[in-house]
Design a protein that fits this description.
The complex is a heterodimer of chains A (270) and B (274). Chain A is an all-alpha fold. Helices cover 78% and strands 3% of the residues of chain A. Helix content of chain B is 38%, strand content 21%. In chain B, 43% of the residues are buried. The chains are: A mainly alpha (270), B alpha/beta (274).
Chain lengths: 270, 274
């Protein structure tokens, strides 16, 4: 369309004049909406609290320093618990996600009914946050590390299975066809044709999820599911701000280490 | 040995890939199947080992009606048909040895193959075949480290370790350079001769087909339009198969090389070293 016939021959433009005006109009409407919403938010804000925020933050910060380093002695155990929750939860999740992914992938599923069930499992696992999983599991099996492991595990099944089944659907069908042509059985087709192709992705997904789970398991203690969150909750409710600051530092350090490990492992695999 | 009777394939999209193909391949014959893209060459050979299910018609391999087999019967029958692919279709992340041994999957149980515990005879045969195709020092390399020609040699070894009666070869040279193409075609034909194997080779390179095959079948729009010796490919026949084009250059090359099967081979021996 945007080729215009002129006396000097055809001229090409990216858009027609009408399309160009429509785009300008779209921008105008969009900006107007943003300005209007800004006004609504501003009207409902108590600006006194906002202007006061800097002073409050400074006040809290001043109560947080210096971190109470001696509190570290009691923290080692919860940190260890947190790492265990993340690791065991991830193992649980990948053990369950692996078969579910094969049932959910279009090219390896036995039939459409099984596929629908597998997809339902994936969606329900993903739609519930691990904090909510933990709340429910603490109510069912009582507070403690085990509830945390299960919460992390259930939350991660969907994530791992979804990424894995997408990887399975994207494999090179030619390699599977070649294995099939040798007279291999269905199971052998999976072991020789499919699994070698998805193994790097599978390892990458597992490590990536473990890294996410380290971060998620630091808050599970807030609802009683074990780990360092328990100490964080206790310290905030007793206004022990020097302990809170130490806990935040420890969480930060743990997450940095886990990200570093995860990045190194994934780099080594892929 | 292999007989196709009224083989017919209509895809779900409605495309009619094969329109009743009748074909007889005797023992030990190397047959080239030529034809334009979309003529149904790939479909034809995939209908034989039922990677593609034929819509109707029969394929009979040494008195076994392949089209009537159950799943387990079909698996047993597939062991007798080795297949070689255009893009090699090696499992890229497995080693050369694992790829060759995967040709024995039809003969070993699931756990045996899971733990890679193949019978000693199979492993010895794999070494012999890798030696034959000139890759014995590559045994432990991963398939994705090999060049195109080397990969196709692994593909050939994988097909042969099945101890097949028939080779189904789908465009073996389409991803290779001209020199490697000739070497691979020569290797396939030599191995067929050594073992008395029949082969159906899909190939779109008319010249290569004429050089190496004993018999040429031309397929066009799912129907056989030529079936005869390589030197019967006149411009008229090629026009019939592929459509109007100046075919003189193609024909001329073959004339220069005289009897295509012997002299072309001799002139290539210098290049066969690698």
């Amino acid at each position: 369309m945007p080729v215009l016939d002129t006396n000097e021959g055809p001229v090409w433009r990216r858009r027609t004049t009408a399309a160009q005006w429509a785009i300008w109009g779209g921008w105008f409407v969009g900006v107007a909406i943003v300005v209007y919403c800004w006004k609504l938010v501003s009207d409902k804000t108590v600006w006194f609290f906002v202007t006061d925020a800097g002073r409050q933050a400074a006040d809290m910060a001043s109560r947080m320093v210096p971190p109470k380093w001696s509190y570290m002695e009691t923290l080692w155990r919860p940190v260890w618990d947190t790492i265990n929750i993340a690791t065991l939860g991830t193992l649980l999740a990948i053990a369950m996600a692996f078969p579910i992914a094969f049932l959910a992938a279009r090219n390896t599923t036995p039939n459409a009914g099984v596929r629908a069930i597998a997809l339902l499992v994936i969606v329900s696992s993903r739609s519930i946050n691990s904090l909510i999983w933990a709340l429910m599991l603490v109510a069912i099996i009582g507070p403690g590390v085990f509830a945390g492991v299960l919460a992390i595990g259930f939350r991660s099944i969907g994530f791992c299975a979804k990424l894995l089944y997408e990887a399975i659907e994207e494999i090179d069908a030619g390699q599977v066809e070649a294995i099939e042509a040798t007279g291999a059985s269905g199971g052998q087709k999976l072991v020789y044709g499919v699994i070698p192709q998805i193994l790097p992705t599978f390892a990458g997904i597992s490590v990536f999820r473990w890294d996410i789970n380290i971060r998620e398991s630091t808050v599970l203690g807030l609802v009683g599911a074990g780990g360092i969150g328990l100490q964080l909750d206790a310290s905030i409710s007793t206004l022990a701000w020097t302990q809170v600051s130490l806990i935040l530092i420890v969480i930060l350090a743990t997450v940095i280490v886990s990200e570093w490990v995860s990045a190194r492992v994934r780099h080594a695999i892929i | 040995m292999l007989r196709l009777e009224g083989l017919h394939k209509r895809y779900r999209t409605g495309d009619e890939a094969l329109k009743g193909v009748d074909l007889d391949v005797p023992d030990g014959q190397v047959m080239a199947l030529i034809g334009p893209s979309g003529a149904g060459k790939s479909t034809l050979i995939r209908c034989i080992n039922r990677l593609v299910e034929p819509t109707s018609g029969r394929t009979v391999l040494n008195d076994t009606d392949l089209t009537a087999l159950s799943q387990s019967g079909l698996r047993a029958a597939r062991r007798r048909m080795g297949m070689i692919f255009q893009e090699y279709a090696l499992v890229e992340r497995l080693t050369v040895m694992e790829n060759v041994l995967s040709g024995r999957l039809g003969y070993v149980g699931f756990w045996q193959s899971w733990f890679r515990r193949f019978p000693g005879d199979d492993v010895q045969e794999a070494f012999r075949l890798l030696d034959r195709v000139g890759l014995v020092e590559m045994v432990d390399k991963r398939a994705d480290e090999l060049s195109g020609g080397q990969r196709q040699r692994v593909g050939i070894a994988r097909a042969l370790i099945q101890n097949p009666e028939l080779l189904l070869v789908d465009e073996p040279t389409a991803s290779l350079d001209p020199k490697t193409s000739r070497q691979i075609m020569r290797l396939i034909c030599e191995l067929c001769k050594e073992r008395g194997l029949a082969a159906i080779i899909n190939i779109h390179d008319v010249l290569l087909a004429q050089m190496f095959a004993e018999r040429i079948v031309g397929l066009r729009l799912g129907e056989i339009v030529y079936d005869g010796p390589p030197d019967g490919l006149t411009p008229e026949v090629l026009t019939e198969i592929y459509g109007e084009e100046d075919w003189e250059a193609t024909i001329e090359r073959v004339d220069e090389e005289g009897s295509p099967n012997t002299e072309a081979l001799a002139s290539d021996i210098g290049a066969a070293g690698s």
